[in-house]
From TrEMBL:
Keywords carried by this UniProt record: Hydrolase, Metal-binding, Zinc
Lineage: Eukaryota, Viridiplantae, Streptophyta, Embryophyta, Tracheophyta
Subunit: Monomer.
The protein's Enzyme Commission number: 3.6.1.13, 3.6.1.16, 3.6.1.53
Name this protein carries in UniProt: Manganese-dependent ADP-ribose/CDP-alcohol diphosphatase
Catalytic activity: ADP-D-ribose + H2O = D-ribose 5-phosphate + AMP + 2 H(+); CDP-choline + H2O = phosphocholine + CMP + 2 H(+); CDP-glycerol + H2O = sn-glycerol 3-phosphate + CMP + 2 H(+)
Source organism, top-level taxon: Eukaryota
Length: 324
């Protein structure tokens, strides 16, 4: 039996649970603009996309939670409006009848320091970090990474993470404008200021979580604003140390899917260990009247992303070899 979006759905099989997804709303009450590459960005329409997402998620009635993959407000938002704009977008998310798990992105950090942002997003994590995990049912665990742990944006100027990031960019990117990839070759093109990395403490935390999930026989979904696989993303959008993070993930068999945002066109890949990487299409780049959000049905052997409009529906079968 085929559904309207072409996915084949086994009749009668109920999902274990379902959840909503959206990324890169990047709302600002400003005129429409364009990305560096000229892709139109609809700053005022994006909050309408979010409103439609929340309505649709509520209509569904069986969504256990929703995940926002980051960048709720755009960097072009006038700074005196940042606080109210973040509150306005959070207010729309709060109309969803269930918990919303937020990730932070570079644009959130252009607007507000972590000390103001994290309480608004109800992110509770050690020392101003934004990584955490949750387990909506005993057999599944979601790991939310803070891709701007080591970053030149969002931390106080004299903070160790800022200094480490600036030193890293100085070594890796010879351009005066550290957001410019000019002259960087291949995967080096990710060494840009609008990206960031995972620090030692978070890496150890991730390792511990995956160890625990393995013992509990849980299947894990990893979420990070910055994509973790070159096959699913432009090189310029990748997490600085995506390779180190994937080395940790690949030591275990529990991670089935990695979800990302940031690279607005979206993407999907399956890596060398059979892990799926799905980068979500941005709400910001939806021309008026169009949408990009979705919900995910989770089964014991797969997850199905049912996308609205510009968000591609994706059926992700877990690698059965991984459980042998
Ligand atoms: N190839 C590129 C991409 C980006 N930049 C710089 O980054 C800024 C942010 O890019 P957006 O597309 O998100 O607006 C942009 O303003 C450029 O300064 C670049 O130099 N080269
Ligand atoms: O975070 P943005 O909106 O500046 O965009 C990042 C780019 O899409 C990365 O290629």
């Amino acid at each position: 039996m085929a559904s309207a979006n072409g996915l084949v759905i086994a009749p009668g099989k109920e999902p274990l649970f379902s959840f909503g997804l959206i990324s890169d709303v990047q709302y600002a009450d400003i005129l429409d603009g364009r990305s560096f590459y000229g892709v139109p960005r609809y700053y005022r329409h994006s909050i309408i996309v979010l409103q439609r997402a929340v309505e649709r998620w509520n209509d569904h009635q069986k969504l256990k939670f929703a995940i926002n993959l980051g960048d709720i407000v755009d960097g072009h938002c006038p700074k005196e409006q940042s606080l109210n704009t973040v509150k306005e977008v959070v207010g729309v998310f709060e109309k969803f009848r269930g918990p919303v798990y937020h990730l932070i992105g570079n644009h959130c950090l252009y607007n507000l320091p972590r000390s103001k942002l994290l309480p608004l997003l109800k992110i509770q994590s050690p020392d101003g970090h934004a990584y955490y995990d949750f387990s909506p049912v005993p057999d599944f665990r979601f790991v939310v990474l803070d891709g701007y742990d080591i970053s030149a944006i969002g931390w106080p100027h004299d903070y160790p993470s800022t200094l480490e990031a600036l030193k890293f960019l100085q070594e890796k990117n010879p351009n005066q404008d550290k957001n410019s990839p000019v002259g960087l070759v291949g995967l080096e093109r990710r060494f840009l200021m609008f990206n960031g990395g995972i620090g030692k403490q978070q890496m150890e935390w991730l390792d511990g979580i995956l160890q625990e999930a393995t013992k509990l026989k849980q299947k894990v979904v990893v979420c990070c604003h910055l994509p973790l696989d070159p096959g699913a993303s432009s090189k310029e959008a990748l997490l600085w140390n995506y390779d180190e993070v994937m080395d940790v993930i690949h030591r275990y068999n529990c991670v089935k899917v990695c979800l990302g945002g940031h690279d607005h066109k979206g993407g999907h890949s399956v890596d060398s260990h059979g892990i799926h990487h799905r980068v979500l299409e941005a709400a910001l780049e939806c021309p008026p009247g169009t949408d990009a959000f979705g919900h995910v049905d989770v089964y014991d052997d797969r997850i199905s992303l049912i996308g609205a409009d510009r968000m591609e529906s994706t059926d992700i079968y877990f690698n059965p070899q991984a459980d042998l």
